[in-house]
Amino acid sequence: QVQLVESGGGLVHPGGSLRLSCAASGSSSSFNAMGWYRQAPGKERESVASITGGITNYANSVKGRFTISTDHAKNTVYLQMNNLKPEDTAVYYCNADRFGFVVTRYWGQGTQVTVSS
Predict the structure, then answer these.
(1) Nearest CA to 66 among 100, 45, 92, 98?
(2) Angstrom distance (rounded) from CA 91 to CA 4
(3) What are phi and psi of 72, to 5 degrees?
(4) With 87 labelled, which of 18, 41, 66, 108 sits at a CA distance of 20 to 30 A?
(5) 25 strand-pairing partners
(6) How many CB atoms lie within 10 A of CB 37?
(7) Three-state DSSP class for 28?
(8) What's the pLDDT at 90?
(9) What is the reported pLDDT for 39?
């Protein structure tokens, strides 16, 4: 049973930084893609960043501020968030995908990030 556990969320002032971590357990093999989504109150879940085969993609709203990285040995994905803005406030979810005949996606439970003065 694959489990993804996020950590690193919290309350931060505008302009501050946070680093989110997402560790995958219950799997002896690595994933084909990993990423981060977020969902703000009253809004749909949106993709923030993803990494596939070493290639990264970012939402326009976070480009230049957020950096996604992975440690395959630890089956962990990170999201370094700098220069945080109030509009970054949301629950952040990590995902891990396995490619095959179909794509199997696993989700973490979410971690709250609040940016407020």
Answers:
(1) 92
(2) 15
(3) -65, -30
(4) 108
(5) 3
(6) 21
(7) coil
(8) 98
(9) 98
Hey, what are 21's tokens? Answer: 């971590």
Specify the amino acid at residue 93: Y
Sequence-separated (6 or more) residues with CB below 8 Å from residue 4: 22, 23, 24, 94, 95, 96, 106, 107, 108, 109
- Is residue 115 within 8 Å of residue 65, measured between CB atoms? no
Tell me the residue type at 40.
A
* Token code pair at residue 28: 């002896």
**Contact partners, residue 23, CB within 8 Å, separation at least 6:** 4, 5, 7, 74, 75, 76
- DSSP SS3 for 13: coil
pLDDT digits (tens, 9 = 90+) for 40-97: 999 999 999 999 988 999 999 999 999 999 988 888 999 999 999 999 999 999 999 9
